[in-house]
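User: I'm writing a tutorial on reading structure tokens. Could you give me a worked example: one chain, its sequence, then its tokens, then a sentence or two explaining what the tokens reveal?
Assistant: Sure. Here is the example chain.
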Amino acid sequence: PQVSARCVHQGYTFVEFKGVSTGPADPLPEFDHNEFWIKVSQAACVGGPATGYDFPPHVVHVRSRYGTAWREEVQGELVLRDSPWDPLTTLLPMREQVSAHLWWPIFLDREVKLAGKLDPDAFLPFVDTISGSRWPGSNGGPKR
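And here are its predicted structure tokens:
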């Protein structure tokens, strides 16, 4: 069967995959996936740059545990395209495509907890990155 997918953000297609499933693959063992998010709420300001916070920056640790319900190997090609919102080709270029698969997870557990505070003054110059992604931006939009 044919497999295709694309990611579109603000009208720009920035990731596209086309390929074909080559059949079932061995399931993965259960595993933990750790993510670290930044939780922050910038203070509202009118007519000038941000000067503070309604909620100062904190690191949030999210641990999720997964199993595998089904997994298939896929042969195909991943294409990255540049966009002002998601500048993958310029800031995170693909060196090689190692493998691709379709994966149906079994969600087993999730734990979310505050991991610690960040220095609010040191963080302020970075508060305008796009959705915490570390891409340079302005007020949640692309760099101008």
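What the tokens reveal: The beta strands are 2-9, 12-24, 31-42, 53-80, 101-117, 137-138, 141-142. The chain has a mean pLDDT of 89.
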